[in-house]
Amino acid sequence: MANIRIRNTNERLTKEQEVKSFLDKHDVLYEHWDMNKLPISLHNHFLLSNEEKEEILRIFDDEIRSLANRRSYKEWDVIALSDATPNLDELLKKFEKVHVHTEDEVRAITAGNGIFTIKGEAGYFDVELSPGDVISVPVNTPHFFTLVENRQVVAVRLFIDSSGWVAHPYEDPDFKR
Ligand SMILES: [Fe+2]
Fold it and tell me: How much distance in Å is there from the Cα of 54 to the middle of ligand 1?
């Protein structure tokens, strides 16, 4: 389950209902997929073959199509990051810059963890994600993504148009790391 840290106050939200209503208020989609559907071999596995990525998409086909129908996504894939990823440090440096997109950014975590830091009305907040968490950062909302200490994640990504999914840098004088 996701939990939230509000950066200005260091307040943490860990109760499901509090997390859900905070994210609702910020127009952040937040849902769950049942990770019991995933075979044990894919629960803690981060160096995925193309066949294994296809398998994840097959297993969650109903969930993916439900989201796609509701929110107009047209394409989806699986991304896996870990210390085995070439240039992980370089990639993370790129991900950790505040940016916006011209479509929303959807991620369904199937293994590992990740943090989306998102700009809200009262400053930035961190959403720490675990397997089963599905989140969407709204269009044109400043944010960035990073990993936690274990530096590993597998996520399904959905796009309206992946060719248009570009990070536009957002210079924010209020943002402190
Ligand atoms: Fe992004």
Answer: 23
Where do we find the tokens 């989201």? 67
The answer to whether 81 and 152 have CB atoms below 8 angstroms apart is: yes
Helix, strand, coil percentages, rounded to 5, for the chain:
25, 35, 40
> What is the residue extent of each domain of the chain?
3-162
**Cα 141 to ligand 1 centre (Å):** 9
The pLDDT, as a whole number, for residue 164 is 63
3-162 maps to CATH 3.40.190.10: no
124 CA → ligand 1 middle, Å: 15
Assigned token pair, 3: 């939990």
Instruction: Please report the DSSP string for 105-135 in residue order.
Output: EEEEEEEE-EEEEEEETTEEEEEEE-TTEEE
Q: How far is the CA of 159 from the centre of ligand 1 (A)?
A: 12
The CA 39 to ligand 1 mean position distance, Å, reads 29
Question: Ligand 1 centroid vs 11 CA: distance in angstroms?
Answer: 24
Gap from CA of 119 to ligand 1 centroid (Å): 12
* Tens digits of residue pLDDT in 97-134: 999 999 999 999 999 999 999 999 889 999 999 999 99
